[in-house]
Automatic annotation (TrEMBL):
Gene Ontology MF term list: phosphoenolpyruvate-protein phosphotransferase activity
Domain of life: Bacteria
Whole-protein residues included: 262 to 583 of 583
Catalytic class of the enzyme: transferase
Localization terms from the record: Cytoplasm
Catalytic activity: L-histidyl-[protein] + phosphoenolpyruvate = N(pros)-phospho-L-histidyl-[protein] + pyruvate
EC code: 2.7.3.9
Name used for this protein in its record: Phosphoenolpyruvate-protein phosphotransferase
Family according to the record: Belongs to the PEP-utilizing enzyme family.
Function: General (non sugar-specific) component of the phosphoenolpyruvate-dependent sugar phosphotransferase system (sugar PTS). This major carbohydrate active-transport system catalyzes the phosphorylation of incoming sugar substrates concomitantly with their translocation across the cell membrane. Enzyme I transfers the phosphoryl group from phosphoenolpyruvate (PEP) to the phosphoryl carrier protein (HPr).
Cofactor(s) named in the record: Mg(2+)
Chain ranges of the PEP-utilising enzyme C-terminal domain: 2-291
Length: 322
C-alpha cells in the first residue's frame, strides 16, 4: 500500500470523474515543511504560528518571525502557504504575557480577540509576514473570527502596515489573499455576509465542533458529544461552502475532519476545494479521492443533509461509497 501511495506523490489530486481538489498540510514549524513535500502536499493549508511564541520567555522579534515565514515560503516555492496569525489563549498559554485566568478560557480572551487588544504584537507579526511575502505564495488567515467587525478591524490593521512598508520603500507581494478561519458557529451561520469581504474560508472543525455541540474538545467526559458527522456540523459546513462559492471564493478545511476517511466523500460532495491535514494523511487521502466520483457524491448532498443522527450519517456515507 505504501508503494501505491508513493507513486502519487507528484500527481495532482483528481477524482474518478476528473474534478481537481487540493490536498494541503497543517504545520507548526518550518521543520515540518520537508515532511509536507515528501508526502506530496500541494500547499500548506494551516501554518499554526503559535509555536514561535511558545516555549520561550519573550515575544519573538519581527526578524525572528520573518526568517521562519521566509523559510517556509521559499521551501514551498509557488505552492500556496496559508499562515494563521497568532491563536493564543484558550488552552495555549504564554508564560511571559500574563494572560488573565478565566473561568471559560475557550470562550474567552484568545486569538483575534487578543490580537486586536494587543495591536503591537499583531502588527509585528503582520509586518514580518508582509516582508516575507516576496519569497513565495503567502495567504494570511485570521483565527476565531466571530463578527464581521473583527475581520474588518484586522484587515484595516493589515492595510495600515502595508502602507507603512510602502512609505519605507520595503517590498511585499501584490494581491495577498486574506481569509478567515470559520470555527465559530456565528460565522458559519452568516458565512454569506463574510463571503462578500474575505478572499477565502478555512473551516476549523476542531473548534467548530466544540462550539456547536457545546462540548469542550479536551474533556473526556463529554467527548461522546464531539461528533464530526453530526447533522448540525454537516449543515454548517455545507452552508459555508455554498456561501463561499456564491461569491466565487474558495473554501478549505484545516480541522482534523479534513483528513478523515469517512468525512472525505461527504466533503467532496458538499464541494470543498481544499483539504488540509497532517502530512502523513495526504497520500492515503489522494488515493481515496482518486477512487471517488465528485458528481456522484454531490448527487447525495440533499439526502445527506436530511439525516437525523451521526449514526445515520455514517451509515449513509458507507452505503454510498461501497
Ligand atoms: C480548528 O479549530 O479546527 C483548527 C484547525 O485550529 P486549532 O486546532 O489550532 O484550534
Ligand atoms: Mg481552532
Amino acid at each position: 500500500q505504501k508503494e501505491e501511495w508513493a507513486k502519487l506523490k507528484d500527481e495532482p489530486t483528481i477524482t474518478a470523474d476528473e474534478e481537481q481538489v487540493e490536498l494541503a498540510a497543517n504545520i507548526g514549524t518550518p521543520d515540518d515543511v520537508d515532511g509536507v513535500l515528501d508526502n506530496g502536499g500541494e500547499g500548506i493549508g494551516l501554518y499554526r504560528t503559535e509555536f514561535l511564541y511558545m516555549g520561550k520567555n519573550q515575544l519573538p522579534s519581527e526578524e525572528e518571525q520573518y526568517k521562519a515565514y521566509k523559510t517556509v515560503l521559499e521551501k514551498m516555492g509557488d505552492k500556496p502557504v496559508v499562515v494563521r496569525t497568532l491563536d493564543i489563549g484558550g488552552d495555549k498559554e504564554l508564560s511571559y504575557l500574563d494572560l488573565p485566568d478565566e473561568l471559560n478560557p475557550f470562550l474567552g480572551f484568545r486569538a483575534i480577540r487578543f490580537c486586536l487588544e494587543n495591536e503591537h504584537i499583531f502588527r509585528t507579526q503582520l509586518r514580518a509576514l508582509l516582508r516575507a511575502s516576496v519569497h513565495g505564495n503567502l495567504k494570511i488567515m485570521f483565527p476565531m473570527i466571530a463578527t464581521l467587525d473583527e475581520f474588518r478591524q484586522a484587515k484595516a490593521i493589515l492595510t495600515d502596515e502595508k502602507q507603512k512598508l510602502k512609505d519605507e520603500g520595503t517590498d511585499f507581494a501584490d494581491g495577498i489573499e486574506v481569509g478567515i478561519m470559520v470555527e465559530i458557529p456565528s460565522t458559519a451561520v452568516t458565512a454569506k455576509q463574510f463571503a462578500k469581504e474575505v478572499d477565502f474560508f478555512s473551516i476549523g472543525t476542531n473548534d467548530l465542533i466544540q462550539y456547536t455541540m457545546a462540548a469542550d474538545r479536551m474533556n473526556e467526559q463529554v467527548s461522546y458529544l464531539y461528533q464530526p458527522y453530526h447533522p448540525a456540523i454537516l449543515s454548517l459546513v455545507s452552508n459555508v461552502i455554498d456561501a463561499a462559492h456564491s461569491e466565487n471564493k474558495w473554501v478549505g478545511m484545516c480541522g482534523e475532519m479534513a483528513g478523515d476517511t469517512i468525512a472525505i466523500p461527504a466533503l467532496l460532495g458538499l464541494g470543498l476545494d481544499e483539504f488540509s491535514m497532517s502530512a502523513t494523511s495526504i497520500l492515503p487521502a489522494r488515493t481515496q479521492i482518486r477512487g471517488l466520483s465528485k458528481e456522484k457524491m454531490a448527487s447525495f448532498k440533499e439526502k445527506l443533509l436530511t439525516m437525523s443522527t451521526t449514526e445515520e450519517v455514517v451509515e449513509f456515507i458507507k452505503e454510498k461509497t461501497e
